[in-house]
Write a structure and sequence with these properties.
- The protein is mainly α.
- 84% of the residues lie in helices and 0% in strands.
- The chain has helices at residues 2-14, 18-34, 38-54, 58-74, 79-95, 99-113, 120-136, 140-157, 160-179.
- Helix 5 (79-95) packs antiparallel against helix 6 and helix 7 runs antiparallel to helix 8.
Length: 180
Amino acid sequence: RFLIYNDLSDFYRFSDQFENSIKIVAEQVQLASKQDNKLELAKAYVQKGGLYLDKFDFHANQGILDTLGVIVQENKKNKLIQAYYSLLQGHTQKALGENEEAIKTFQHALTILDKQEGEFLLKAKVYYFLYAIYGNMNDVENSMKYASLTVEFAKNSGNMNMLAKAYSGLAVSNYFKYEK
């Protein structure tokens, strides 16, 4: 059921239907809270924070980060929750133009994820952000590296939306490679 919420929220998000996406995420938060599923709650808050970042609502996003921080502190043994927190934190830093800090945050997430089985979609998202940051910094080599890793992990995740974004990123990286 949580997978359906994630996919539906993404669909609405990419279709620029903010209100519908927020409603879906609210239902996801409610279900995760009711089931006391802290990992799914963290995932829902990351979705919600991403929505607010899309709208440049940094104040609302900060509230989400604060809430996630509490969940991380209460569940220190669950490293995946920390990785999801790092995903939103890095996304926030990237949105604020803090590229060096965002890179460190995403690398921290990867350190956690290296010890986790699966989690291909989360890894793909982290690599995608790294591709985008390095692309914005005109670092073609790293942009290509992370775009390729995004494709690899998106394939393994089975998430076609992420795979489409990954191939798009790889195409952009290749374009810049030959433009130089």
